[in-house]
Every structure is written in C-alpha cells, then in structure tokens.
Prior knowledge:
Blueprint: H1 3-17, E1 28-32, E2 39-42, E3 47-51, H2 57-69, H3 78-88, H4 106-118, E4 122-127, E5 133-136, E6 155-160, H5 167-171
Parallel strand pairs: 1-3
Antiparallel strand pairs: 2-3, 4-5, 4-6
Helix pairs in contact: 1-2
Amino acid sequence: MNEEIKLKLINEVTSELKNILKIPEGLSISECNATSYVGRCYIKENKIAISRFIKTDQDYKDVLAHELIHFMCPNHGKDFKEYCRKINSLGLGYNVRTNARQISNIDEIRDIRKEKGSNRKSYIVWCVKCGWCEIYKQKNHKLRNYRCPKCFGKLRQKQYIKGKTEIYRVLN
C-alpha cells in the first residue's frame, strides 16, 4: 500500500470518527515491520504504529480505528467494546474488534512471523576452562561480568547457526 493511499485512509478515518473519538493533536502515524501485532498505540507519545503487512484498505481503516479507541480506553474492556459497537454501527463498513483475527491476511502475517523467528540469531556461550556451554537467543553484551556456573571460569560467546556451528570447534 503506497503512502498516498495511507494518507487518504488516515484522513478518511479521522474525519469519520472525530465526533465519536477524541483524536489527539499532533498524532503521528507510522509504519512498522511488526508481525506479532498489526497495530500499536503509544498514548504518551501520541503515536500509532501500523504493520506494513496490512494489505487491504478496509483492514488498515479497522486497525487505525482500533488504535484510536485506545486513546479513550487503554485496555480492551467494556468501554472499548462499546466504542467498537458504536463505530461498527455507523454504516461506514467498519469491523473494529478487540483482536486481529478479522484481518484478511492474518494467516500470511503469522507465517511471516514464524519465518522471521526461525531466522533469529542465537549465540553459544561456553567456558574456556571446563567446556560448559549453553545456547541463548540473544547476545550478552556484559558477558565479562559473568562466570561459568560450574567452575567459575571465563566465558566466551559466538553466533550460533544451527547445523553450521560445530560446537567442538568453538570450544577449542
């Protein structure tokens, strides 16, 4: 979806919902690479982030409306659901819900998420003294502050690629 279309949709949603919702001044709406959510509201920063993986105009409008409701109701409680009902009953084609299941390409977004997760870097941490090792999902930038849990020897780390990093070579 190009920037021109997004801007048109943002203007459409804000003008259609300005009588129902309090739309904050200086609101910033940006695109993000998220796959674990389709939209996120940052109330203190007056900011909304919408996943770039949203494909249809209607899904974009629904997600934006959902996030705008969060400026009125920070959680998905009774008041939030009441705003959803009001917006959905306007006759403007909205289908605002408390979750992302109504998004037309939600399965595709979840597949992208799984694929991204499988490409995450892992790190192997090992003891230079006794050979103890463990694989972690993220790099430890303060490794020098830690010692081996077995012998209190110094620890080292290296990026671990499953099937490619030979552990016995790392330990030597």
